[in-house]
Amino acid sequence: MTMRRSTPWVALLILTGISTIGFIDRIVVNVLVEPVKAEFGLSDSQVSLMGVAFTALYIVISLFIARLAERVRRMSLISFGTLAWSAATALCGWATGWTNLLLARIAVGVGEGVGLPALQSVVTDYYPAHKRGFALSVLMLAPPIGAAVGFMGGAIIAQEFGWRHTFLVAAVPGVILAVLAWIFIAEPARGQHDVAARADTVPPVRAVLGRLFALPSSRHLVFGSALAAALGFGLNYFFTSLMIRQFGVGLGEAGFYAGLIASAPAIVSVLLQGWLADRFGAKNPAAYMYIPAACLVLGGPLYVLAITRDTLPLLLGLVSVTAFLNFGYLGVTYAALQNLMHPRMRATASALLNSIYAISGAGGPVVVGLLSDHFAQGQGATQGLVTAMAVTGALYVWAALHYWLAGRRYRADLARTTAEDAAQAA
Question: Any transmembrane segments, and where (predicted)?
Answer without folding.
Answer: 12-33, 45-65, 77-96, 102-122, 134-157, 163-185, 221-244, 256-276, 288-308, 314-337, 349-372, 384-406
